[in-house]
Structures are given as C-alpha cells and as structure tokens.
Amino acid sequence: MPMRLCRYDKSLLAQNTYDQIAAETKFQLLLTNVVNKTASEDARTMAAVLLRRLLTTSFDEVFPTLPPEAQGQVRAQLLSSVQQEEDGNMRKKLCDIISELAHNMIDDEGNNKWPEFLQFLFESASSPSIAHKEIALTLFREKVQSSTPLVSTEAPPHPLVTTEATPHQAVVEGPSDAHDDKL
User: Fewest C-beta atoms under 10 Å: which of 53, 57, 78, 176?
Assistant: First the structure.
C-alpha cells in the first residue's frame, strides 16, 4: 500500500510540475524530445502524446506566438522527421501531431495557412517508399475523419488535385493526365 501511495504522489507531483511550465516552453521541450532519435522510445512516445494534446488544447497560446520563421522551421522539421522515422509507432504519433497542426492551420474561412502540407501529402503518396505512402494515407484518413478540408474553396486547387479523384485514387493512380500540361 505505501508503494502505491508513493507512486501516486510522484505522479501528482510530476503533473503539477508539468502544469506549471509555460505553454511555449512545453511546446519547445516536447518537440525537441519527439524529434530526438537518441531519446528512449517511451520518452519520445510520451512527448508525442503530450505535444498533440498541447496543440489540441492550447494551439492559440503556442504556435501563433512563434515568429513566422520558427513556425516554418517547426512545420519543416515535423515533415522531415516523419519521413525519416523508422519506427512505425512513432511515425503514427508524428502523423497525429502533423494532422493536429494542419487542422489548426485552416482559418475560419477555410483557407489553408500551410500549403506545403498538401504538397507533402502528394509527394508522399507518389513516393516509391511504402512508409511514405503509409504516411500519406494516415494523414488523408485523419483529415477526412476531422472533416477539415484539404483544399481551400477560395484558392485554386493544387495542380495534382482533381475534384473527381478521391484520396485513394490520388495515391493509387497518381496525378491525373488532365493536369500534365501544368506540371
């Protein structure tokens, strides 16, 4: 019984300590741990879960406060990390983080503030790498489930996107021939 109480006290202390860290600092620390391949799998997994939760609950307190260059670096770092990740479980966690970030990068009018995300999806879907195709399908699935549009209705569609193609068709069949002259 005393051992359980001790674990419970440590857990409460850890939670209280975590709660007292400023959101911006949490974001930087968690991101650093997620992309650090020398950290333990458990540490990276926990950091990924907490980072996604932070983006879900406190996005406006964290991401928009970063300078635009830092925002771009974070987005690029996440996309690069997911492509280079060898562990399937961690790749899925990175996809979860990227999906949450992409969801929050759609403004109230439906405009996509992260155009590189869509390009990344199509490049991953077209890659010969099975892992990259899996990343694209995971992100497509999460976008469909969240009902966040992939393409803004205000902007012209990406040359690789046709309104007739489903995400599955885009991955399996690749870009349509109708847009070859634009590529």
Answer: 57
